[in-house]
Amino acid sequence: MSTNREKRTKWFMEARFGMFIHWGLYAIPARGEWVRSHEKMSIEEYQPFFEEFNPVNYEPHKWAKAAKEAGMQYAVMTTKHHDGFCLFDSKLTDYKATNTPAGRDLIKEYVEAFRKEGLRVGFYYSLLDWHHDDYPAYGDRHHPMRDNEAYRYKKHDFSKYVDYLHGQVRELLTNYGKIDIIWFDFSYDDKVGETWRATELVKMVRSLQPDIIIDNRLGGNIKSVNPEIYAGDFASPEQIIPPEGILDEAGNPIPWEACITMNNHWGYCADDKDFKTPKQLIRALVECVSKGGNLLLNVGPDAKGEIPEESLQILSEIGKWMRKNGDSIYGCGRAELPKPEWGRYTKKGNKLYVHIFDRGIGPISLKGLKGKIKKARLLSDGSEVNVNEPWNATEYKDYAFINFAGSRLPDDIDTVVELELKN
Ligand code: H79
């Protein structure tokens, strides 16, 4: 199981950086993808957005190009979120893009466009469904009708919902060619593991797509040394970068991917202009890699089908840095050195990447590396970096030093020095 997991996740662990896409009817109210739940909105109140959904500017090749130019290697897009609206042409429901003014299968176009850019393609599929008649409503923790008395005695047959869920996953993994990731979201309360008939579901997933990787949100314990079949291939910390990466119960690193928003919402939110800076996000990516994980960075396209201008700007800035410094990200992982005070390390083979965030004063000290550096180059331009022992540091026996002439770093976001280590 775990060796298979290693094989399946090899590309994923090397890719390190992907695009999350949250898009659906909720782009119209533009208050985030939880709008129905937060505002306890009924299906009828939400229906106008279905009637008018017409993303005239949806050209996914532009999204794919933006992802590619940012240095992303894969994408994961919502095929159905908690509101139950399907962006794909499911035979099992009428609540789908095909029946809106959009009039077509939007997932098909996404898959084709991203594949064409050479990116790996993933599907997000919500386990929750606030539209399906057989999903529990009254008394559920999250359902928009959770405390609506009209729903108190409404009958439902959860097994029919689970049939529907399995059927849709079968469609998604049958009709769109090779899919690289399936991202189930999420388990809670008693809705976990076999409630979703998770063993059966995962067996089907693997029979249709032998190489696909699955997140850990069907439940189960991915950290176990003997995990359930549905425990997943990678952990999925949300809006947090785990302090020490993620290890299994035996202390071995496991694959993980932090999913992070650019502002404070996943789905398009017209009023949320609180975007993180490119510097914060680049450093977040470096942090993930330094801890052996990936960053899945979200965009929430608007109702017309455009990625917000602020997000495009951020992606473009990240891309500029990645084009010069991508070697310190792709295929890299933990350096197994303590976190240095000026920044972070990433490592690939005998290349140690020194990510300097804080210039400090004087030489930059590298504990434990004295005598171990064969050569040092600025990653962005290949120029030589001085690592001679400075005259004023002879007493610090265990340290190597990087000497920058000036008082400023060449790159204020993250100056990367590539060290080639002796064997
Ligand atoms: O798709 C995105 C989110 O909609 C979904 N996962 C990402 C990738 C997600 N958001 N929250 N959750 C899953 C877990 C539930 C969190 C909750 Fe809450 C905390 C539900 C109620 C309190 C956050 C705050 C959501 C509603 C209020």
From TrEMBL:
<keyword id="KW-0326">Glycosidase</keyword>
<keyword id="KW-0378">Hydrolase</keyword>
<dbReference type="InterPro" id="IPR017853">
    <property type="entry name" value="GH"/>
</dbReference>
<keyword id="KW-0732">Signal</keyword>
<dbReference type="InterPro" id="IPR013780">
    <property type="entry name" value="Glyco_hydro_b"/>
</dbReference>
<dbReference type="InterPro" id="IPR016286">
    <property type="entry name" value="FUC_metazoa-typ"/>
</dbReference>
<comment type="function">
    <text>Alpha-L-fucosidase is responsible for hydrolyzing the alpha-1,6-linked fucose joined to the reducing-end N-acetylglucosamine of the carbohydrate moieties of glycoproteins.</text>
</comment>
<dbReference type="GO" id="GO:0004560">
    <property type="term" value="F:alpha-L-fucosidase activity"/>
</dbReference>
<dbReference type="GO" id="GO:0016139">
    <property type="term" value="P:glycoside catabolic process"/>
</dbReference>
<dbReference type="GO" id="GO:0005764">
    <property type="term" value="C:lysosome"/>
</dbReference>
<feature type="site" description="May be important for catalysis">
    <location>
        <position position="259"/>
    </location>
</feature>
<dbReference type="InterPro" id="IPR000933">
    <property type="entry name" value="Glyco_hydro_29"/>
</dbReference>
<feature type="domain" description="Glycoside hydrolase family 29 N-terminal">
    <location>
        <begin position="2"/>
        <end position="327"/>
    </location>
</feature>
<dbReference type="GO" id="GO:0006004">
    <property type="term" value="P:fucose metabolic process"/>
</dbReference>
<dbReference type="InterPro" id="IPR057739">
    <property type="entry name" value="Glyco_hydro_29_N"/>
</dbReference>
<comment type="similarity">
    <text>Belongs to the glycosyl hydrolase 29 family.</text>
</comment>
<dbReference type="Pfam" id="PF01120">
    <property type="entry name" value="Alpha_L_fucos"/>
</dbReference>
<protein>
    <recommendedName>
        <fullName>alpha-L-fucosidase</fullName>
        <ecNumber>3.2.1.51</ecNumber>
    </recommendedName>
</protein>
